[in-house]
Amino acid sequence: MNRGWLLFLQLLVAIVAILLWHLLTTVPLFGRIVLPPFFFSNPIDVGSQVVAWFVSGVIWKHLLITLVESMLAFVIGSIGGVVIGFWFARQPRVAAVFDPYIKMANALPRVVLAPIFALWLGLGIWSKVALGVTLVFFIVFFNVYQGVREVSATVLDNGRMLGMSERQLTRHVYWPSALSWMFSSLHTSVGFAVVGAVVGEYLGSAAGLGYLIQQAEGIFDVAAVFAGMFVLSAFVILIDLGVTAIERRLLAWRPAGAGSH
Amino acid sequence: MAVALEDATVAFRIAGGRVYTAVEKARLTVPHGEFVAIVGPTDCGKSTLLNVVAGLLKPAGGSVRIFNAPLHGLNPRAGYLFQADALFPWKTALDNVAIGLEIAGVRRADALERARDFLGAVGLGAFTGRYPHMLSGGQRKRVGLAQVLIRDPRILLMDEPFGPLDAQTRQIMGDLLLRLWSADRKAVLFVTHDLEEAIALADRVVIMSAGPRSRIIGDWRVPLARPRDILEVRMERDFQALHREIWSVLKQEVTRGYAQSAQPGAAA
What we know:
The complex is a heterodimer of chains A (261) and B (268). Chain A is mostly helical.
């Protein structure tokens, strides 16, 4: 399928979906409207809400807050995950000691941590960052741990035969391998950073996209809820495009198609 | 002697606390500048023997002497071309070759320049910027060869290096190897399961018996003049006579090896 045709079909799906949504919420079928606008709003109201946000400029503040929270969560969680993952993988005894606790912490649904973080860190951005960090950390941690442990034995032997010391092995073999695994989880971890930020905002804050959606829900403004969701999706897609661009540069050595996602 | 194995025995601990003896009392010497090929049936411990000379494996008995000194730990005089892909996938061909010098403390710019020469020597001058996955199997082996040779090891260990390649590429690689080797004649231990390849390349052909408890059961000198053309040399009468002679011994071992690996539990 060529690119133009694909794009056309992709657009067609959106157009049909929106058209259906519009018809079902505005045009009566057999004397009644199938989707009551009170619960489902309609595309025109949602669209004008989005436009209104951007025209008045209120949305920028919220977008910026969510972006900052996500990025902080991503950076802090990734650094933590890389460092601890690397350490554990190179020190199997440490890993064995902490293993049950890591599993326990990872098994915990993060949402229940949100009130604790709000209590500890207040309603500002840091409680949201903390929530995002707990999500990002484990993804990066497990990937880096795996990456270091699964370095090919032959490549390691080759490094040793070429005269590498343990430190040089770390730098030239373990480290690149761990980073490549970390980058292959970039999409997931960035996505989770955003989830952490938005969920945190939703549960208690004074700004951000999550706050916006929560506020609209509080007054049954369904159009604004949908509008918030659309802005959020567009925001995540933009970030994802950025990640893809970074990934292309950093993982140029990888065969195409391997390890994307 | 570049390499001297005296009654080297290699054993592994396997499941159930039992001990599997892969190689038993191997005696083998490789003088300076000699090209020795080791041939044997599948799973006869050929690679094990190489790993012992490399210092990657410690023999359970006997001794390994490298240039008349006992070997402790890794063998720093040896370069090892592995059977499996051993290039660093995150480094370009050029960086893969330069790394051996870089870690030895050579300045990066100098290391890269030398690496460029070596890639040129193996016929990959135009592929310096490629990552391993962008190279064909034969090209990867060439990079591997350059990676090993740039450190100028006095002993070259090769573990079925051309095994996965197609027949034509193998011949080209064999010719390339002989050309590079003839420049400074390192001691070579070349493991292969292909007897023709062994005779065409080597000064001596050593045969191992089928495992377990595999032994060295034969040692032939190859009476063919150098320089050799790998394809031409196979037509020579001496080649064919030697091939017949060695094959008569090897054949029994190959048959025995198959019979053994067909038994249940032989996989250990």
